[in-house]
Specification:
9% strand, 7 helices, 320 residues, two-stranded antiparallel ribbon, 2 domains, disordered N terminus, binds zinc ion
Length: 320
């Protein structure tokens, strides 16, 4: 239909036709493949509940990336911005089948998942291999399945690798994460004259096995005193804390993960000492190694430091 350029419309009596209703298509829920995740199996199938746990974990991670301002027009694309276009989750039998095409991945310990670098002749992308009956304890029951929190922990390893190992480097660097006491005692890191410790306070679980390790739990999927494993568990708790509770996010603009001095670290993390504690998500709870309330707020400090550290990493990588 033609129109008259610059025609002046009278302001009275103009009745516009109601917009034609656009039929709303029934949305098809996104599946793992939409997130760039391929499942493979070798002598053991991914169970239906494991596939669902993985998808729900992936959706959580995509949700935190949305809240964190990750680049991408949809949650699917934001997930891929950080995690890459393609990864494989490989379910391995407890006992390696004869002539397995995936033999090289059986360096994964039975009962655990392990992230492998791309192997061009076999699977030319990052692989999370999970072998056999997933380990459990008297207090951490898996029924042998890969659970949602395990999946998110493994995605923490993927993020670490995709960051060029920045995450483990920041977590394991020779600095100290101080608590909110006047003295600023160590929560995690190095303290004068001692080696690095992941620490036992502020994780949300408290079943000490010794001076540097706790039992496996929802919040510590791998409690080894390792910067790599602590990094993945910090990611796990950050994802759920940030998507479960009102999470402070007004970091000081000059935040640096490994502040040059304890005084600077205390200053840049000061707000964590007045923030509300974690609520619906009990990881990063302010408890000590035996589970009692810890008024020096180690959980708040863990959350605040990892929030700032992810901010640094995501900006370094151009993910935000
Ligand atoms: Zn791990």
């Amino acid at each position: 239909m033609g129109s008259i350029p610059n025609a002046v419309q009278p302001y009275w009596g103009v009745v516009y036709a109601p917009p034609t209703p656009t039929p709303t298509p029934t949305p098809v829920p996104a599946g793992l493949s939409d997130y760039g995740i391929e499942l493979r199996e070798d002598g053991l199938l991914w169970s239906a509940s494991e596939k669902l746990a993985l998808l729900v974990g992936v959706e959580r991670v995509a949700d935190v990336f949305t809240r964190f301002g990750v680049l991408g027009s949809t949650p699917l694309l934001r997930f891929k911005t950080v995690m890459g276009e393609w990864m494989v989750w490989l379910r391995l039998a407890e006992t390696q089948p004869a002539n397995s095409p995936y033999a090289i991945y059986y360096d994964t310990a039975a009962g655990e998942c392990k992230v492998h670098d791309p192997i061009p002749s076999v699977i030319n992308t990052l692989v999370v291999a999970c072998r056999g009956f997933m380990r459990q304890t008297n207090t951490w029951i898996t029924h042998g399945e890969v659970l949602e929190t395990a999946a998110v922990h493994e995605l923490g390893h993927i993020l670490d690798i995709r960051s060029g190992n920045q995450l483990r480097s920041f977590v394991g660097d020779s600095f100290m994460l101080p608590d909110c006491s006047v003295r600023g005692d160590r929560i995690m890191g190095t303290s004068s004259g001692t080696g690095w410790l992941r620490g036992q306070r502020g994780w949300g679980s408290a079943i000490p096995l010794g001076d540097d390790q706790q039992s496996i739990s929802q919040f510590q999927q791998n409690p080894a005193n390792s910067d790599i494993e602590a990094a993945a568990d910090m990611f796990l708790n950050w994802v759920y804390r940030r998507t479960s509770d009102a999470a402070p996010s007004n970091l000081p603009s000059d935040f640096v993960p490994n502040a040059p001095s304890l005084a600077v670290q205390v200053t840049q993390l000061a707000d964590a000492c007045t923030y509300p504690s974690t609520g619906a998500w009990e990881g990063f709870q302010n408890i000590n190694r035996t589970g009692n309330p810890d008024p020096t707020l180690p959980g708040n400090r863990r959350y605040w430091w990892i929030e700032g550290t992810f901010s640094t990493i995501f900006q370094n990588k151009g993910w935000q």
